[in-house]
Amino acid sequence: MKLCTLSAAPVMSSKKPDTTTIPIVDLGQLGLGVAGGLSEDELQRVAKELGAALTGVGFVYLKNHGIPSQQLAVLRMAYYPTVPSTVPPNTIRCAAHTDCGTITLLFQDDMGGLQVRDVEGRWVDATPIPGTIVVNAGDLLQFWTGGKYVATEHRVIIPEEEVRRQSPRQSIAFFVQPNAETLVRPLDGSNTYQPITAKQHRLNRIRMIYT
Ligand SMILES: O=C(O)CCC(=O)C(=O)O
Predict the structure, then answer these.
(1) Strands 132-137 vs 196-197: parallel, antiparallel or unpaired
(2) What is the pLDDT along the chain (211 residues), one digit of tens a residue?
(3) Spatial contact of 201 and 139, defined as CB atoms under 8 Å apart
(4) Most buried pick, 9, 77, 177, 209, via CB within 10 A?
(5) What is the pTM of this model?
(6) Complete domains list, the chain, with CATH
(7) For a substitution probing ligand 1, which of 93, 102, 106 has the most ligand atoms within 8 Å of its CB?
(8) Cα angle at 117 between 113 and 123, to 5 degrees?
(9) Which residue has its alpha carbon closest to ligand 1 atom 8?
(10) Could you tell me the distance, in angstroms and rounded to a whole number, from the CA of residue 171 to the centre of ligand 1?
(11) Ligand 1 center to residue 117 CA distance, Å?
(12) Which backbone phi and psi does 174 adopt, to 5 degrees?
């Protein structure tokens, strides 16, 4: 688990944006995947187009982005409602699990409740630092590194403090995954883990959970 601090610098312009239209930037011109690529001038032009779109409305629709349709990365927003007084503290709110992708970014506020299991098997509070991102290692990172980076088992528990129990908890998790057909095998050449595609591993996990 690693922590990094987010910059407080504003990303978007303070100018009131025109939100009536979302700009479209066509990346088809980049010739993605084609050897040679764009000239510096062309890259500058596309970068300026993107910069203008993002500092104006703050959103941009990317056309012909070249990202294969079978990409598996997911942004999950989970809402945990307030907790009735009948529920004892430390009750499990999100069951212990590892994530099935490579890394997961967990955006932190000050609500807490996340716990990770250490190498001795003890549950440790991942005390939240607002404005930071917890980076969680997932199964495929473990497979890829031949077990050097072990997938972090984690869970969420109900807090003790009344103020936290009476506030809803909003979790924002970005699950980074290789494309579906990517074959993941230990990069150290060992046979610690059998080769498996990202998609097959995810299907195996879904079957385990729901059967
Ligand atoms: O809510 C959290 O802090 C963790 C969420 C989580 O583990 C998950 O969505 O897989």
Answers:
(1) unpaired
(2) 444 444 444 444 455 555 567 888 887 766 655 556 667 888 888 888 888 877 776 777 888 776 665 788 999 999 999 999 999 999 999 999 999 999 999 999 999 999 999 999 999 999 999 999 999 999 999 999 999 999 999 999 999 999 999 999 999 999 999 989 899 999 999 999 999 999 999 999 989 888 7
(3) yes
(4) 177
(5) 0.70
(6) 2-63 (no CATH), 74-210 (2.60.120.330)
(7) 106
(8) 55
(9) 173
(10) 7
(11) 14
(12) -110, 115
Torsion angles phi and psi, residue 54, rounded to 5: -75, -30
Please tell me the distance from the alpha carbon of residue 138 to that of residue 72, in angstroms, as a whole number. Answer: 14
Supply 102's token pair.
Answer: 């490579």
DSSP summary character for residue 130: T
CA of 156 to the centre of ligand 1 (A): 7
Please give the number of the atom of ligand 1 that sits closest to the Cα of 80.
1
Residue 30 sits at φ, ψ, to 5 deg, of: -75, -15
Scanning the structure block, which residue is given the tokens 């995810």? 202
- How much distance in Å is there from the Cα of 76 to the middle of ligand 1? 9
As for ligand 1, residues whose beta carbon falls within 6 Å of it are: 76, 78, 94, 99, 106, 114, 154, 156, 171, 173
CA separation for the pair 138, 140 (Å, rounded): 6
| pLDDT tens string 52-94 | 877 776 777 888 776 665 788 999 999 999 999 999 999 999 9
